[in-house]
Amino acid sequence: MKIGVITLNPTIGNIKENLHKITCHIKDAIKENYDILIFPELSISGYPPKDLLLFPEFIKSEQKALQSLKKFSNSVAILIGAVSRSQRNSSKLYNGAHFIYKGKIQTYHKRFLPCYDVFDEPRYFNVGQNAPLFKWKAKKIGITICEDIWGEESNLKARYEGIPAPLKKLQKSKPDLIINLSASPFESGKDKIRQRLVTNISKKLNVPFIYVNQSGANDELIFDGAVIATSKSKCIYHSADFKEARHSFIFKNNKTLECLSQPQKLTSWRDNLSQALITGIHDYVIKSGFQKVVLGISGGIDSAVVASLAVKALGSQNVTGLIIPSQYTSSESVRDANTLCKHLGIAKHVISLNDLHQMMRRQFSDDFNSVLSDLTEQNIQARLRGNIIMAYANNSNALMLNTSNKSELAMGYGTLYGDLGGALAVLGDVTKDFVYELARHINHNKIIIPENIIHRAPSAELKPNQKDEDSLPIYECLDPQVKKTLTKKILPKNKIDKFSAEQFKKALFINEYKRRQAPPILKVSTQAFGFGWRLPIVNRYL
Amino acid sequence: MKIGVITLNPTIGNIKENLHKITCHIKDAIKENYDILIFPELSISGYPPKDLLLFPEFIKSEQKALQSLKKFSNSVAILIGAVSRSQRNSSKLYNGAHFIYKGKIQTYHKRFLPCYDVFDEPRYFNVGQNAPLFKWKAKKIGITICEDIWGEESNLKARYEGIPAPLKKLQKSKPDLIINLSASPFESGKDKIRQRLVTNISKKLNVPFIYVNQSGANDELIFDGAVIATSKSKCIYHSADFKEARHSFIFKNNKTLECLSQPQKLTSWRDNLSQALITGIHDYVIKSGFQKVVLGISGGIDSAVVASLAVKALGSQNVTGLIIPSQYTSSESVRDANTLCKHLGIAKHVISLNDLHQMMRRQFSDDFNSVLSDLTEQNIQARLRGNIIMAYANNSNALMLNTSNKSELAMGYGTLYGDLGGALAVLGDVTKDFVYELARHINHNKIIIPENIIHRAPSAELKPNQKDEDSLPIYECLDPQVKKTLTKKILPKNKIDKFSAEQFKKALFINEYKRRQAPPILKVSTQAFGFGWRLPIVNRYL
After folding, report:
1. In chain A, which residues have their Cβ closer than 8 Å to the Cβ of B55?
2. Would you call A269 helix, strand, or coil by DSSP?
3. pTM above 0.95, yes or no
4. N or C: which terminus of chain A has fewer CB atoms within 10 Å of its end residue's CB?
5. How far is the first Cα of chain A from the last one, in angstroms, to the nearest whole number?
6. Which of A51, A127, A379, A509 best tests the B interface by mutation, with the highest count of B CBs <10 A?
7. In chain B, residues 147-186 whose CB comes closer than 8 Å to chain A
8. Which residues contact A115 (CB under 8 A, 6 or more apart)?
9. What is d(CA B352, CA B350) in angstroms, rounded to the nearest whole number?
10. Cβ contact (<8 Å) for B541 and A383?
11. Chain B contact probe: residue of A350, A395, A397 with most B CBs at under 10 A
12. By the 8 A CB rule, do A336 and A450 touch?
């Protein structure tokens, strides 16, 4: 039995194009005599479709697309994730896995519906009741969807109390093969945990297991395109290169799997993180219908890393750097920014902020008869820069990339509508230590980012001799605390460098208003700011 | 039996202050010989506490505050909404109602946990299993929490399939009185539906009913402070003036309720809508620790209405209007803007945009050697205005109010980081027709908003002779369609004025990126943009 596994990269809502991709894969597979073709969770709508699922017309189109696959099913069996609608009540939806063969559809409904972090599945779906088993050619195929295999882990178990676990059911029915269809967002390090989980289940149930994830990215979420296969309780295949591809296996009658493909796996966590961000930039820009991006190049590390990743994602011809020095910008910064652009081979423009800044300052003293505070002065500069970059973006049909990192966002170190602007926050889930790791990784073979950028003390250069560490705890102390607080929801008890525990807590919570208006953030950790972090803005837990 | 009902207005996360308020109410009630005092849903944390519930320290403080109420319970029985923690598993939470009497606590757990619109309760809470009944002095008190009384309505029923309905249980146990503790967000017209629901339940179960809602506002959500009481199957009391107060009743042995207070009810839907927005502004600003607001006064209707509401919320001494004309601003607009500020008695400043605009334009042609497109030109002006208003806000410790309306937000008619900026979108859930209704309502007794502002055709005045209806369908066609699409999730089939059905759909969906970075929006309708509207940004369902 020849099995094809497709790490589909659908675009949310683009039912027509997603269906076209799916049918192309099916036609190719038929030509090559595949017996069964497997697609990930919610392949037709893309994941997560969010409130599109509340539009009846959307569901109707999606169901029509699903039904249209029947016509291929005399030649090949198709297993695909797609919405399922209750026959008695059309507003009742399930997250379904559809097994299509000889014009008939068998459907399983996901049981464990995640409702934490970025996941809102009970908002849309009902808990499934169907048996997680398809019968096909005297074989029993066990089927699970994403969270179904995670929900019995100790950290999640309590959430799904009272819902019969699909794996428990499968343990009893002794299937010949288990499959998991996923749309499981990338997190640094999750690949190893996932491989262990799949292997353990395969061992426990004594059955070969095929796991398939989506690839590509949709808004904040990145999918690594993982395919994991086990045979005789061992992991025999683990591919994950974020790309849409077909992976092939032979299922033998003695209940073993053999690989026909070569797994594409990135070797280090830096490779993975870097490729995740590149994928995130690429898909956000391209799926939005753009090709080009523009960003402010400050001569600092964050914009250097974002520019380098953008070049890998879109090509140097599609990236423009704007260097916008003010009176506080050091010549060192301007020099390094220019060198970076040269190394990257990207177009750059230098535009001085001085005249605009001075004029605005003058108008304040003339029209308002008031002196600008230190903070106002800094914000004005950042917002003028933002205006220039956005104007350039608007004028050249490009998207502005945001360069804020997670450590800054945690402490609210940034100017709303200034450096906090942009279409996508590439490093919004990357703490400063990891920004440096990425920079060194980018420079691994060849110096792209001038070494001086990596070695200088970080500064916003919005007032004379300013350093980040004048206003923030040093990053060596800040970064671990940000990770701990976000992931474990533990607030500090002791000082973090110069910040008291109370100062840290206050800075974290009181700056929620900035994060709420920040661009979408590419999620690469267990807990990113953005859609999976839902704090009140007016919050006096200070 | 003397009953006190408190429409508490807690601040999210401010456990200390909320507890202080609660104990003051309790002490007063003890002095005045109340037998029982009733507080709304989640009174100690405020509603919605969102991800604060994931911080174990927060839960610990909240539980400590709850326990501290025991010491008053020899003198008065206390019924209060607060988080409940499972004794076996401290990470398992419930949305609880606590009946505290003589040092003992009986607890009921909410069963119907809403997971739609702005509600995410299954993200935090487990479904309750306890009986919805407290025994007290040979009386049976039936208890429900918010959604518990809504969940059997036809539009929600399917969501709670399989969960035993609290009201079904209560019908069997024949309580002497039913109470509902709510934190139910304001929506225009919901008060009537709520009164009908409460009365119907009271009739069906043949039992008096007391309903209590929170008052005030937290971020996007506004609470009308409703108290509804029924006796002998009739509504005998319906108060709702958005304010924290104590409402008093006598419960007689023949199972009837008598009112001791005078209900405070606003008479028209315009009064309600207007008061809701005033409450929303007031609480956002004051609970954030600010007193002052600033906004751009364009001479148009939106900013005129926002300024008028802000004056009612905060007093004229706390509102500043900035008039920032560009070369495209008509003298009519400047005149009307000045008159408005005079009528409102607010401070105003006039600052010309011309020089900044010209300089920016010049820099583009000098440094980029490029001509600005029409759209870029408009955006630059809007963003320079945004920068000026934000600088003023930063410099005078004020919050910038946003003046975008719902019709504009739906079509993406506004400039990100320009007129789409601000701390709070006061009219973000108000379609243009209702903005006019509000304007006329404000002018009801005395002309505050110059009549010319109400009668002129709306214009952004960002290019010569610009009118909103050059770029948008006329509001008479646009407003009903926006309401229909948002509330019913129905996309148009026919033309909306000059827009084709496809153009409308595209404008709605493609501008999600702007709304994602817009300020929090005061929710006053069934479906507002903001937290309860979750669309993908990269969405090709176009």
Report:
1. 489-491, 541
2. helix
3. yes
4. C
5. 61
6. A51
7. 158, 161
8. A121, A122, A123, A159, B115, B120, B122, B123
9. 7
10. no
11. A395
12. yes
Catalytic member of A146, A147, A187, A514? A146
Q: Are B434 and B273 in contact (CB under 8 A)?
A: yes
**What CA–CA distance (Å, rounded) separates B376 from B119?**
38
**CA-based nearest distance B162→chain A, Å:** 11
Specify the amino acid at residue B252.
K
Q: Which of residues 374-433 of B touch A (CB under 8 A)?
A: 375-376, 379-380, 383-384, 386-388, 390-392, 394-396, 416-417, 421, 423
The amino acid at residue A400 is M
Q: What pLDDT is stored for residue B173 in this prediction?
A: 94
Between CA B111 and CA B118, with CA B116 as vertex, the angle to 5 degrees is 105
* Positive/negative CA dihedral, B9, B13, B16, B17: negative
Q: What is the pLDDT of residue A436?
A: 98
Q: Is B341 tagged catalytic?
A: no
Query: Which run of H or E residues covers position A24?
Result: helix A15-31
Contact flag B536-A491 (C-beta cutoff 8 Å): no
Specify whether A41 is catalytic: yes
ipTM: 0.96
Q: How far is CA B121 from CA A123, B47, B111, B172, in A?
A: 10, 11, 11, 27
Round to whole Å and give the CA distance between B500 and B542.
Answer: 12
Tens-digit pLDDT profile for residues A127-174: 999 999 999 999 999 999 999 999 999 999 999 999 999 999 999 999
3-state secondary structure A272-298: HHHHHHHHHHHHHHHHCCCCEEEEECC
What does the pLDDT look like over B239-292, one tens digit per residue? 999 999 999 999 998 889 999 999 998 889 999 999 999 999 999 999 999 999
Which residues of chain B lie closer than 8 angstroms to A115, CB-CB?
115, 120, 122-123
Do B265 and B291 meet the contact criterion of CB atoms below 8 Å apart? no
Name the residue type at position B141.
I
Q: Does A537 touch chain B (CB under 8 A)?
A: yes
Q: Is B110 designated active site?
A: yes
- The closest CB to that of A359, out of B359, B392, B539, belongs to B359
